[in-house]
Amino acid sequence: MVASGRLMGLLQTTTRTVPSGGVRTSCALPQRLVGNSNRAVSTFSSSNSTRPNRETLGSSLRMTFPSSNASSVRMRSNVSASDSVTEGEARASTPLPNWDIRVLYDGDCPLCLKEINFLKTRNEKYSTIDFVDLSAETYSPAENQNISFERGMETIHGILPNGAIITGVTVFRRLYEAVGLGWIYAFLKIPYVGPLADKVYDFWAFYRLPITGRPSLAVVLAARRLKKGDATSYCSTAEKECK
Question: For residue 17, what is the DSSP state?
């Protein structure tokens, strides 16, 4: 009983010295805590006439305090862990490509191939460009951001690792930067020069087929469609070449 009285005195009032001014102050514990402690001490007093041991006292005191906070912490911890695993699995399932830019080029264009072959030679050192031939029978729009053969033939297209699509002279600038020759197209960064260069390239892209001695784009599209076993022509009825 003497030990119980001492324990009650310690639980009800805690005395500590405050550094400022050396004044001693007393801090009373919350009534709920005191009440729980009273019940714990009463249990010891009634069941043990001798001094309670440390293990029994600690076990009883832990039983008097609510455990909802601990369980909620464990639940939040479990949710966070599962979320992080899910994000990690998602990142692992979508690995980034090992190139800086993918270029879709016309493999049947002789002038285009000269530049592409030059870039391929440079790329042997850098391995930063992925070359995709539009004219190949195995070309798949689904694997190239749904860029169709017809759309790709209208102008040069590039695909970045994040899936963004770029066209025109910007593609050439990025290609040359990828193989350490970015200075060649550095002039495109000058204000108003880039848009002007795009217009010049668009003119070339539109007339490159007849300039290189090839049939019009409508005929090329129709021939490719027939080659794949589809008799439907891309050409309109106004195109005499496609009839």
Answer: E
Q: Model confidence over 63-79: pLDDT tens digits?
A: 444 444 444 434 333 43
DSSP 99: -
Q: Which residues pair with 28 in a beta bridge?
A: 13
Query: What is the Cα Rg of the chain in Å?
Result: 39
CA 41 to mean position of chain CA atoms:
58
CA–CA gap between residue 243 and residue 239 (Å, rounded):
7
* Closest alpha carbon to 104 in 171, 164, 178, 162: 171
Find the Cα–Cα–Cα–Cα dihedral 224, 226, 232, 236, rounded to 10°.
50
Q: Both tokens of residue 47? A: 């069941």
Name residue 35's amino acid. G
CB atoms within 10 A of CB 111: 12
**Are residues 151 and 104 in contact, defined by beta-carbon separation less than 8 angstroms?**
no
Q: Tell me: the pLDDT tens digits for 10-30?
A: 444 444 444 444 444 444 444
pLDDT exceeds cutoff 90 at 150: yes
Question: Residue 96's pLDDT is what?
Answer: 82
d(Cα 216, Cα 206) in Å, to the nearest integer?
A: 10
Question: What's the one-letter identity of residue 211?
Answer: I
Mean pLDDT of 182-195: 92
Instruction: Assess contact for 169 and 197: CB atoms under 8 A.
Output: yes
